[in-house]
Design goal:
Blueprint lengths: L12 E2 L2 E9 L3 E8 L4 E8 H17 L9 E5 L11 E7 L3 E2 H7 L6 H20 L12 E4 L4 E4 L22 H8 L8 H17 L8 H4 L6 H7 L16 H13 L7
Helix pairs in contact: 3-5, 4-7
């Protein structure tokens, strides 16, 4: 939960829903657990109307493609902003299905020591979800453990947070630095426009699995490089993974160089967006 969260102690009435607990707050988004008038538990994602309308359109399109929402979080309802509010861009609320936990919370709870059976299960479930999303012509652009939710009593994992979802090659928002693909890190360091990429999603997914297997978050770069993402150290450490010459002092596991180089070569030989 972010510090300085607004409305942290206040119960909000939003349409037919009332909040019960603040889950996360940032300068762009506030997320609550809430209850409907019928007593159903849901998630309220409150954000400005531009972001809300964009994500709503994406979730509705994905729901039309798969009404069961097997791989992505289900959009349950939508609460528009108050048109009489003085703010020209009022907060609107996406009402989403509630999940039991996120991959991030689950990994922290088990101290990043999941069993190999769990690693394989999560990898298969998340991989299928990402493959399905790519088959719909969309890149997620911000794959990370907090954007993977447990559903179906732990039987499956779903993707969430489609605020930045885009078609491959479209202008993309900057995602989370720790899960930035090497080629995108190079683009950011060069201050060039960032483009959505299936490969970048696959890199982030693969890094999540490696962290689960390694037993440590942010396992590819050194602690020194990852302590601050406000400067270029983390980006430089990630960007060099695409180069033939790697400064090994910046890598926590230098032996990965050959593995990562091989994965980049394998990826580049395939034009299909699927995993």
């Amino acid at each position: 939960m972010a510090s300085g969260a607004r409305d942290s102690e206040e119960i909000l009435a939003v349409g037919r829903y009332h909040t019960t607990r603040l889950v996360h707050a940032s300068h762009k988004t506030t997320i609550y657990l809430a209850e409907s008038a019928m007593g159903d538990t849901v998630v309220l994602k409150r954000c400005d109307s531009l972001q809300a309308e964009r994500e709503r359109a994406t979730l509705m399109a994905l729901k039309r493609a798969d009404p069961d929402c097997t791989h992505v979080v289900r959009l349950v309802d939508f609460v528009p902003g108050d048109p009489t509010a003085a703010n020209p861009n009022p907060l609107e609320s996406l009402v989403l299905e509630a999940a039991s936990t996120s991959l991030e919370a689950w990994l922290l709870a088990c101290h990043y020591r999941p069993s190999w059976v769990d690693v394989l299960h999560v990898g298969d479930s998340v991989g299928r979800a990402l493959e399905w999303l790519h088959a719909q012509g969309l890149c997620h652009t911000d794959m990370k453990p907090s954007n993977v939710l447990c559903a179906g009593g732990g039987r499956s994992w779903k993707l969430c947070d489609f605020a930045g979802a885009a078609k491959e090659g479209a202008r993309s928002q900057e995602g989370t630095i720790e899960y930035c693909a090497p080629e995108q890190a190079q683009v950011l360091l060069a201050h060039e426009p960032l483009l959505a990429s299936y490969d970048a999603d696959i890199w982030a997914y693969s890094k999540m699995l490696y962290e689960m297997a390694a037993g440590s978050p942010n396992a590819l770069i050194s602690q020194e490089a990852s302590t601050s993402i406000s400067d270029a150290r983390a980006l430089e450490a990630l960007a060099q993974l695409k180069d033939p010459v790697v400064v090994e002092s910046k890598l926590r596991f230098p032996v990965l160089r050959s593995v990562l180089a091989l994965s980049v070569r394998v990826k580049s030989r395939h034009s299909t967006p699927h995993l």
